[in-house]
Queue: 4 jobs
Job 1
Amino acid sequence: MRYEPINPDLFIQNRKRFMRKMQPDSIAIFHSNDLMPRSGDTYYAFRQNSGLFYLSGLDQEETVVVLFPDCIKDGFQEVAFIRKTDDVTAIWEGQKYSKEEAQAISGIGKIFWLEDMDRILHELILLAKRVYLNLNEHDRFQSDIQTRDVRFARQLMERYPLHKYHRAQPILKKLFMLKSPLEVALIQHAINITGKAFHRVLEFVKPGVLEYEVEAEVTHQFIRNGAAGHAYEPIVASGKNSCVLHYVQNSQVCKDGDILLLDFGAEYANYAADLSRTIPVNGQFSPRQRSVYDAVLRVLKGARQMLVPGTTLEEYHKEVGKMVESELLALKLLDKTDIKNQDEKLPAYKRFFMHGTSHHIGLDVHDPSHRYDPIQAGMVFTCEPGIYIREEGIGIRLENDILVTDEGPVDLMANIPIEAEAIEELMNAQVLSNT
């Protein structure tokens, strides 16, 4: 792996936290993600299942983790199965984990080869009354693709129809939301790499460069600093493209006088960063661009302070909406008549600010969560207000990642430039150094 070894205490503690939530006489089974076919005889790059990684740190395909806290068979409370390396695999793909390496990474004492799983797991399941299975339950994702977890669930229910089956995701979601100090450190590392990439962009951007050239500069900085790559599809959107919320074509020329909306984040040790900045292509905001930029920045600063324990996201989003509404009135994009005649279910500000302000972030850029739970210390959120004026080709989004603490919100991106003056100064300093 490109990342430095992670303290196995993280995964040991995560397993303990999960097992404390399990019902008595239960076994929980977690699979690695499938290798996904790409084309011909190739696969997409492998990315580990977040739940399995969270509980073990094992970052290899064809891996299974089994938790059985009440198991009466000595030493089988935690078990992992991994792929056995043969000579052909070693030649073509390189060495896979040894049992000793898997033990050191995960802290799991009993590691078996995958070929032994059917026999061992059969005995363990017969000793249990209940089975926890880990299906993807992200409430904003649906797919027709049958994952390894889905296939395994169906096989297990057919083979053991009299067991009671339970969902692992409700437990995992509760655990995912509260980051330990080790997890925060990994997120911070991903953020630091992301910050380096943004500085590189400020040195590179000028009229005439292509959006995908900017993307290449970001990717270069990610890879050279040990990231796996992008935590999500990067957005490099100049001019009118900045008003397309999920613009990922990144194919147009960045023109003099336009703004450039950037939304990207590094993935380090499977943990994500999520940054948004909007910069002037020529190094100088126009008066109109600057007024909209400053409005969005004021909303970010206000919204950031509201990420405190006890607040619900629903309450938070309503208050941020009021802040955006106020800024839109000042920008003369809305007037009092618009506010008076607005539909409560679709406020007038939604014409210019269509998306939510914050989401959980961690092992996934949109970390699974119980969205109706109150905010708690230890959660990490994005804070990403925006204003998009399609008629003017101006889309401004600013985004930082915020740690919630009992002492107040901590901006994990505080060291990444965001003030308009700082952006212009850094861009123009590079121009002057090249003259």
Job 2
Amino acid sequence: MKNSIGIRHEDKYELERRAPLIPGHLEQFIKETGTDIYVESSDKRVFPDNEYEAAGCIVADSVNDCDLILGVKEMPEDYFKPGKAYIFFSHVIKGQAYNMPMLKSLMQNKGSLIDYEKITAGNGQRLIFFGRYAGLAGMINTLWTAGQRFEELGIKTPFQELKQSCQYPSLDQAKDAIRSAGKRLNEAGLHSETQPLVIAITGDGNVSQGALEILDLIPGKMISAEHLKEGRYDRSRPVVKVNITPEDYLEHNDGEDFDLQHYIDYPDQYRSVFEDFLPHIDILVNGIYWDEKYPKLVTKEWLSKTEVENGRKLKVIGDITCDVNGSIECTEKATEIEDPVFIYNPAEDSYKMGFKGDGVAVMAVDILPSELPREASEHFSSALLPFLKDLSAADFLLPYKNLELPPEIMRALIVHKGELTPDYRYLKTYI
């Protein structure tokens, strides 16, 4: 069997410009396999229609008659057709209420669903992801946000000359701008009341590694989380940097050593001591994986308390994780690329878009990799390509036990012919 493959136009967000597969990769694949690959025409995709045509793809007004349809973000509730297979970031595995109607519709149409997020190796490691690019764009945006917010507060920094990541033609040009701003900051320093600027990044995965890659471009001392908590750092430096990982801010209730797997399995046996770090932090970039069963890092209660006491150093939060009212409780909404920042006012428990007002600035764009669409798509496509031959040859109408798919893909098959697969039957509760 040989499936026809469709790549759909992204329609969830106006500025979503990514693609799951790029022309350069598809050209060789088509030559080797003869697979029919249809690409839905798009006037905003970072790779234009003519590049796909030149690669041997068929540009069409619609791809919803293809056997296997690939996208990046969620597909509309009324999009699914009987017997088709779909691959995209579905955001359903936590039982997200806002996507349950979509999942229910797919199941009612007897479709099959593969989620990129669950394409993993045997040890659970994700194989196909945009995480690094979320970290890269998120850190660029956070520094830009800091520049704009500090200027609003009357504090001049070289960061005010930075742009939002989507405004740079390439990642390399964004990095050059960060280096230049960092050099000027290191040479000129900051006002004595502002220096040092303490920038903290949470997490130890792909997202945080991307953020650290940008932060490394700025001169400054990288210190341990322990030294930050104790206030042991050089205050004569313009910038102090720190990476805070779960083992730094999570403590076992009975004083036992931190064990990541044990925490994942029994989160109720741990508590967060993240507030011990917050009094020292000016700019916080959040790159952790979070679920409702895990403790929050920044609570509204802490923000309100420090607002009253006028003792809050924290001015800017870049919430790359972007769980609404999640690990950063004041993330009141996921923001759009066109309007990426709001000010959260703890005294009123309210927010206002932009950089003006009392409170803390929050940047919470939830499609950050799309601010670096070309590089992010190239990376993602190179990771997905090795699975494309098996996907194009699979007969999704066979019984589940007879499917001939690699184990990495089988682990990501959430729905098969309208039925939840064994590992995902828990989603019945949410549907």
Job 3
Amino acid sequence: MVLLSLITNSFFLGYLAVFIVTHIPFDIVMLAKRGKASYPRPSFETFFETFAVIVPTLIFWLFLFINPIVFFNSGKDYASLEIGFSTWEWIIRVIGLVLLSVGLLIGCLGRIGRGAYLARNESKLATNWGHAIVRHPSYFMYITGFIGLLLASLSPYLLILLIGIPGYILTTIHEEKDLKEAFGEKFTKYKKKIGMLFPKIKY
């Protein structure tokens, strides 16, 4: 399954590149123009929440960076599990890559939308770009990313990433309280239209 490993590890490098290109410029501008603008940041209220967010997130990024390096240097994907049925392996990995792609797209759109506000030193509720799809695009990116990376890599070592899902859900719930305090009725109206972590089905 060298071809599958080649495709997935090339995708991982592309994923990193897209993330860096859409995030780092806004981070630099925001640091350079640090002013009155602010936005609620994650606040961890328990040890479990802290562990469940930080550890899986670190593992997620380290795997995306290290696994391709190991693969392209050795020609072997040591972390991946071969399930024995090539058709199923293709299906599982493709589902993982789709999840990663969707999460990355929405996460990057959210970063651009919020970053544009903060770069102009405007303290306002971000409701466009990725925030017009879900209220927390970055957390959506990580939740779909944890599941997607596990499926795309077929690595049993990445089962630990699933701990990050309840971690990010708890963080989202706490951040929602801060957003309500910061933006009041505007956030309440926004909350009715846009889903918290997954898009609302409109019918």
Job 4
Amino acid sequence: MSNLLEVKGLCKSYGGFSLKDVSFGIPGGYIMGFIGPNGAGKTTTIKSILGMINRDAGDIRLLGAGDARGLRPNKDIGVVMDAPMYADDWTCADVEAAVSPFYRGWDFGKYAELLDKFELDRKKKVKDLSRGMKVKLMIAAALSHDAKLLILDEPTSGLDPVARDELCELLTGFVTDENHSILFSTHITADLEKIADYITFIQGGQIIYTGTKESLLEKYAMVKGGPSELNAEQKRLVIGMKEHSTGFSGIAETGDLGKLPKSLLIEPVSLDEIIIYMNKGVRLDD
């Protein structure tokens, strides 16, 4: 099983921010959720992958090819960024006319089908579409040129629950064979809990975790207890501990649970909770 996307040792510094040795890979046939707090480096990583910014170091390989630099429109890669890439005065039909010449495999029937599915009027201008409808338009274009790798940066932001569910079904169908994969960056982690196979968690420009979603969710547990149930050594095992008048909450590695009092309440943890507590409790090296 080969990786359709491989990132090794990616570094990029500008302003007061740096990506440090970012590495991960997505096997064919899978969806990888890309998570982390705002400013963690998700968009910088994606722009580096796409050649939209120059990286300082590292190797990026797309679809098994050599190192990718200065990537031009590629029929095998579909991209949906967090903001529309089309002129405001273009209609949905204009978008197809402008974009389709760049892709030899453009499927006019597929584009029409997706416009109908997403209830997008071909004559409506981009500037008159809601945020959610603009996202749907970008997704329709990304799926209309036989892309093998989809790179999505916050695609479900602005979509209502029904539209998000429809998109998740569409993405799940997209990866039914080993020839398609998705890198899915989003703050709506409920979508990833539903459809992602792998998770890469970035914080402060560094990778905290990359691996299967199940392994990440099994690695940590939510712990809650009273105000005096932990000694100083045990408190150090609780990541991002929040203390209040009636007790505390935090997350702990499941391997450390045996070192904590049996009286504590132990619950499964969500991806949201992992991001929140890790952001509060983990201090990365400079």
